[in-house]
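Quick one: sequence plus flavin-adenine dinucleotide SMILES, need C-alpha cells.
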Amino acid sequence: MVAEGRVIVVGAGIAGLTAAFRLQQLGCSVLVLERSAPQDVGGRMASVAVNGYHIDRGATLLSYKNKYLLSLIEDAGLARDIIPSPGESALVRNGRVVQLRTGSLRDVRGSFPTIRDFARVMADFRRIRPLINSRDMSTMAVWDNESVSGYAARRRLSSGTLDYFLDPLGVTHNLADPEQTSVASPFIALNRILHGHGFFTFQQGAGFVADAISRQLKVEYHAEVTEVEEHKHDVTVTWATAGGEEHLAQCEVCVIATPPPAMTRLYGQLSPEVGDYLRQLEYAHAIHVNFCLDEPTREKQLVLHYSRAEDPDLGVTFLPHNAAAQRVPAGKGLATTYLRSRWCRSHWDLADEAIVDRALRGLSRVGAPGGLERRINGTYVCRVAPATIIRRPGDYRALAGGVSKELERPTRVLFAGSDYLADSSTNSASYSGQKAAERAARYLGLRSAPAFARAHRVDPDTLDHGAKIRR
Ligand SMILES: Cc1cc2nc3c(=O)[nH]c(=O)nc-3n(C[C@H](O)[C@H](O)[C@H](O)COP(=O)(O)OP(=O)(O)OC[C@H]3O[C@@H](n4cnc5c(N)ncnc54)[C@H](O)[C@@H]3O)c2cc1C
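Reply:
Sure thing.
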C-alpha cells in the first residue's frame, strides 16, 4: 500500500503531533503513524478517563513558561479550554508542609537548615541559571561533572540540605536518587520555583491537548513502524498493523518522533557516535498511584515534595483538584503519588494492590496529605517506561560534544522529541517538533509560515482564554 503524503511522522506524542500540525499549517500532506490505540494518543502526554476522573498517565504540570506548547495550543484553537491553576509547591518535613510559592526567595530561604547552605546554593544557582535551556541542554556541559550528592559533599552542604531540599526537588524532575542524577536537576526545579509563571491545566487533563490536536490530523493508529530507510530522493517507511500485515510507503521527508530507544531500533543509518550515545541513555521507570477521593483533601498545595530521609521510596504527590476544581468530578478529589524510579524498577511486576499499599504506607509515614486514606473511593495504578530521561553526570557534556549538531544536520530523516537534546518535558518536545517541521519545510522548499515565528512571541496574558491569569 502506498500512503499519500509528502511527509510521514512516526509517533503521535506531543513532539510528533507538533511537527505534523506545523507542517499541515504550511500546506503539507502529512501522515502520522502511531503504534498505540486512539485513546492513548499523546504518548507520555496522554490522560485516561477512569470512573469520571481524568488521570494524567504522564505529564501533568504545564507551566505558563512553556511558550512553545502554549503557541501550539493557541494555534490549534484550544486556548479557550485553558484553566489557570492557583496551585503551588511545598516540601513535606516532619509532617509539616513548608510552602515554596512561585517567585518567593523567602520561602526558599525558609526551607534551608542553615543560612550558609542557602548562600552557597544560591550563589551556584546564579551561575547555573543562564545555562538552563529547555531547547538544548548541551549548554549545561561546563557544570555537568558531578551528581547531586557529589555536589553537596564538595560544597560541604549539610545532610539536611541534601535530603530536604536538593533531593526532593531533583526527584520531582526525574524520579532518580541524588547519587544517580546530574547536579543540574535540582537547579532546573529551583529555576521553575523562583522564575516560573504558575501553571495551567485542562478539565480533561494534559492529554486533552494531544487528543484535540490529533483530531485535526491524519493519524493511522495501531501502526508500528519497523524501519525507516533514507535514499537519495526519498525515504521508505515500513510499518506493521495490528493483524501483523506489513505496509510500505515512500515520502519526501520523515520525522521520527519516538523516544531514542525506539528510534535506534527502527533507523539504522545513524552515525555510530550518535547511535552509541542514544543507546546508553537511561530512563526512569515511573509507577504512580492515583487515589480517587470522595472529597478534596484539606491540603491546598498542588505539588508535595518528599524527603528520602522520611521515606526512601516516595517521590512526589500531585493534587489535581488543587490545580482547578473542574479537574475532578464535582466535589471530589484526586491525589497522584509517584514512587521513586529505583523502587519502581525493582517492583515493576508487583500486583497493583501491593503497590497501593506501599504508597499508602509511605504517605502515612510522612503524614501527608492529611486525611487522604479516609476519603478513597477507588485507586488506579499507572506504569510508564520509558518515563523521563535521567541525565547522569556527563550526559550534557556528551550532547555538547557533537551529538546535538549531528542530530540537527539537514537530511530527509529528522528527529523530534524532548529526550534527544533536552530533559523530558512537553515544552521541549513541542519545541523539537516545531524545529523538525521548520527543517522539513526548508528541505521541501516551502516558506516558513508566520505561525512558526509566533512561538517566540507568545504571551500568556494575550491568550484567548478570557480567564484572569494569576501571578
Ligand atoms: C510519568 C511522567 C510524568 C511527566 N510529567 C511531566 C510534567 O508534569 N510536565 C511536563 O512538561 N512533562 C512531563 N513529563 C515529560 C513529558 O511527558 C515528555 O517529555 C513528553 O510528553 C514526550 O513527548 P514525545 O513526543 O517526545 O514522546 P512520547 O510522548 O513518548 O511520544 C512518542 C510516541 O511514539 C510512539 N511510538 C514509539 N515507537 C513507535 C513505533 N515504532 N511506531 C509508531 N509509533 C511509535 C509512542 O507510542 C508514542 O505515542 C512526564 C513524563 C512522564 C513519563
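Residues 455-471 have pLDDT under 50 and may be disordered. The radius of gyration is 22 Å.
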